[in-house]
Structure formats: C-alpha cells, structure tokens
Design goal:
By secondary structure, the chain is of the alpha/beta class. It has helices spanning 3-15, 32-41, 105-112, 146-162, 177-188, 216-222, 247-251, 268-278, 310-318, 342-356, and strands at 19-21, 28-30, 85-90, 125-126, 133-138, 166-171, 191-196, 226-236, 255-258, 282-288, 324-331, 362-363. Helix 9 links the parallel strand 10 and strand 11. It binds manganese (II) ion.
C-alpha cells in the first residue's frame, strides 16, 4: 500500500473522531483536547465506541471530493481480519456477452459512494455503530484468463469468509457470483439465494463456454451450492431463446418473479413471502444492476427495457432484513454507458442498503 493511502487511512481511523464542531457552530477544529471538551458537551458526537467500529469520513468535516476514494469513505485495510463485514471489489468484465466495461465498476462505485452518509434516514439503521466494516480493496484478478480469475476469487473469498466476515462485493460482471458462492457454500453449506436480475443467468453454455456472466447459477446448482427451494429470482424479463426461458429455474425449485409480476406494485408484500421462504438458514443476496430499468441505470452491459424502479430495488433489499445474510453483491455496473455516474451512484446506495440489513445492525 502506498504511503499516501496509508496516511489517508490513518487520518480516517485516528483523526476523524477529532473533527468536531464547537458550540458556536462556525469553527471546525482538529484537536484532541477540544474533542474531549466537545464530547463532554455533546456525547452523541463521539465517533466510535473505543475504536471498536470504523467510521466513514464525514462530509461535514472533510470535502467529498478530497482523499483516496474508498467505498463509503471507510478505512482501507489489507485483509478481512477483525471485520464483521467487508466491501471488496472484483473488477472483471471478461465474462460479459455484450457491452464490456464492468471491470471499472468497483472503482466508479467507490467514487460515487462519496455521497453516502453514515445513517439510513429511511430505516434509522446505524450500521457503523454496530458492525465493523472496511474497504479491503480488490481481488487480484487475471484479465486474460477467466478461469484463473474464478480460482483467484474463490481463494480470496475463502479467506474473507473464514472468520465469519460478510463480504459486500462490488462487481464486476456476474460471473463472479459462481466462485464467490463456492467459497460461501464451503463455509456455510448450501445457501438460500435472493437473486435480483433482468436475466436468470442459468444458461448451460454460451458460445460453447461453461463460464461466463450468463451461466453462474447453473454452475452453482450443479455443484450443490444452493438450497434450491430457498432461491428466488426477481425482475426477470426480456426476449428469450425459447417461449419459457425460466422453465429450467422453476424445475429446480426456484421461485421466479418476472418483471411483469412487479410492474406497478410495491414489492414489500413479495418480500414478506420471500422472508418466509428463506427461513433462518444462510442466505446470499446477488443484485445485478440490470434488474433496474435502463432509464435509471443505463451503465450496464446487457440492458433490458421495462425493468424495476430504484424504489423497488430498495424495497427488495430492505425486505431482506431479518434474513441470515452471509454475503451480498452488486454487479454489472459498467460506468462508460452512463455519463451521469448515476448507475454507479445507485449501486453505491444499494450496497449501503445491503450493509444496513445485515444481521446485528443497530436500528434507532
Ligand atoms: Mn446477471
């Protein structure tokens, strides 16, 4: 790690608690003695409970455009050691079947995540008061060999989940869900799956290849990584290679909720059924940004019209609260197709929503 990044991390970990506003409301200070004074005046201003949890750098005290961009402006650390949850990037698009560019997803999500604040105003979740989370950087992928990349991802995630740390993954194309689930299922056994996507991603082969972003969940089923009666696929739509493109999914025991079944509706009632379906067993949440309508999230590789709204996306994730989530991902952000940056911004917010529904997160 460069010394610059190390210094930034030290700043965010050590000195961030010392940024405090004096009672005048005008002066901003960086001084530990003043911090003590301010904490006495306003104990709620304290940053972390004895350093037990990491705090993001707040835009109240440090400009959003300043610093090395980590996810949610959290500290960076090299490994998942000591963390309850970790943001991790998997920057590949080698498995993409149409527009490339998802390799730049993690980087752009980190940049746009500078808009995130510490609390969830909608649900009153306070993740940084109850979960120790950091950005642990990216898997060292091989851009020239997708199978080798899968091996590298599997090995990296074995280490992440070994101590019970919950990975919050920034993709990367959807291929990555396969090696991630190999590592997750090795630790927890077959998992339930909440899969939000425009596509089922259960093709057997594409262009003769078994590994790609249209095949991960087929491979997962073949290897027994999923508890198939605890799998739901939400948002599926678009043209198919046959009249019933989702027959294979249903024949495995998956619940398939096509986009048409989501149109014009709140998805809160659906999620109540999904919570019952998932029960208390381990669940993995995989969210392909192309589940959302390309009008909201055009920055993706294989867009399909008439998709979910961001509101429905948030309803799905908030509806996962109470599940035994052991891992989450947000994949397929391909920034170059969205000059506004809003696709990555949406991805960053959805990842924050995922953090907020992890078990043990405190709510006010
Ligand atoms: Mn997908």
């Amino acid at each position: 790690m460069s010394s610059v990044l190390r210094n930034f991390t030290a700043l965010s970990c050590t000195f961030r608690p010392c940024f405090s506003r004096l009672s005048t409301g005008k002066t901003w200070v960086l001084d530990s003695e003043v911090r003590t004074l301010v904490l006495r005046v306003n104990p709620n201003r304290k940053c972390s409970e004895g350093g037990k949890f990491n705090q993001p750098v707040s835009a109240e005290f440090v400009a959003r455009v300043s610093g090395v961009p980590t996810m949610a402006r959290l500290p960076f650390q090299e490994s998942a050691d000591g963390l309850h949850a970790a943001f991790v990037g998997v920057p590949i698009d080698t498995g993409t079947s149409n527009r490339p560019g998802a390799r730049f997803g993690p980087r752009q999500i980190r940049v746009e995540s500078a808009m995130l604040r510490a609390y969830n105003s909608g649900t009153r979740a306070a993740p940084y008061e109850s979960v120790k989370v950091a950005d642990i950087g990216d898997v060292n992928v091989n851009l020239f060999d997708l199978k080798d990349t899968c091996k590298r991802i599997r090995e990296a995630y074995r280490k992440i989940v070994a101590t019970g740390c919950i990975p919050l993954t920034m993709g990367g194309d959807h291929t990555i869900a396969y090696p991630i689930l190999q590592a997750v299922a090795e630790k927890y056994g077959p998992v339930g799956l909440v899969h939000v996507d425009a596509h089922a991603d259960v093709s057997d082969v594409i262009l003769g290849e078994k590994i790609g972003h249209g095949t991960p969940f087929r491979r997962c089923v073949e290897e027994g990584l999923l508890d198939c009666h605890r799998v739901v696929q939400i948002g599926l739509r678009g043209t198919g290679y046959s009249a019933d493109a989702y027959e294979w999914s249903r024949s495995q025991g998956f619940r398939v909720v096509q986009a048409e079944d989501c149109w014009f509706k709140s998805l809160a009632p659906l999620m109540s059924e999904v919570r019952a379906q998932m029960g208390s067993g381990p669940v993995y949440l995989s969210f392909d940004i192309d589940a959302l309508d390309p009008g909201f999230s055009p920055g993706t590789g294989t867009p399909e019209i008439a998709g979910l709204t961001p509101i429905q996306g948030v309803e799905i994730i908030r509806g996962c609260r109470g599940m035994n989530l052991v891992g989450c991902d947000l994949v397929e952000v391909s920034p170059a197709y969205d000059t506004t940056g809003n696709t990555a911004l949406t991805g960053a917010n959805l990842l924050f929503e995922m953090l907020c529904v992890l078990p043990m997160v405190k709510y006010y």
